[in-house]
Design a protein that fits this description.
TIM Barrel, two-stranded antiparallel sheet, about 15% strand, binds zinc ion
Length: about 260
Amino acid sequence: MFRFVLVWMVFISGLWGVTIDKKVPILCYHRFGTEVVDSMTIKTSAFSEQMEWLKTNGYTVIPLDTAAAYLEGKVKAIPAKSVVITVDDGHKSVYTDLAPIVRKYKIPVTLFIYPSAISNAKYAMTWDQLHELESTKLFHVESHTYWHPNFKHEKKNLSPEEYAKFVDKQLGGAKKKLEEKMGHPIKYLAWVFGIYDDALLVDAKKAGYEMAFTIDRRHAASSANIMAEGRYMVISKHTIKDFEHMVDGSEDRMPKDKKEVIAY
Ligand SMILES: [Zn+2]
């Protein structure tokens, strides 16, 4: 009898291993400030409230790299209530407003950066600031293409040859530039404006990215295309209840036509 139960348990756990869809909620932020100046700017007090809620409710903020390894089966387990924080665009308020809160809560944050803006655009951080943030071991830089283009527009306006060259610069070129500047491998990509198509997913893989992220509002999942993993963009109108529904999976389980669509 015991033997039978044992065999049965092994069988069931084997079955479990192949059928389970591993999921992690990944949040996507942009800018921070003491006041809300636009929808993409999150009040620092609201962000602190969200981090406090995560802590109180037993969530662990894990590095994107750990989540990716888990989804790919390279890491066996992560805390049951795990969440990933990413911030796109490299806005200077990441340095001035977000970093102090990140240091306080000691949470890992991935920054998706497009190199053309860094130490160049007024609104962006400098390379020195990015290095300083990475030296805390809490921040980590990954790729958000070379200059944040709209792939749809470019595909329409460029010849096929020009477009191929352009895509190579935005994907492979950005990876190379960021690796030179930051001195570590760049493994992940965040699609600009959440725009991607089947060809781009193949191109991203060819350019050497291990995983890529959209702003499609769903959990990142082992069952999804790893070049188009979901993320939840958090904007200023979201309440703490909305935030809870992103991380606890309620929004993920919502029927598609009921889900919020956020215009970028
Ligand atoms: Zn962006």
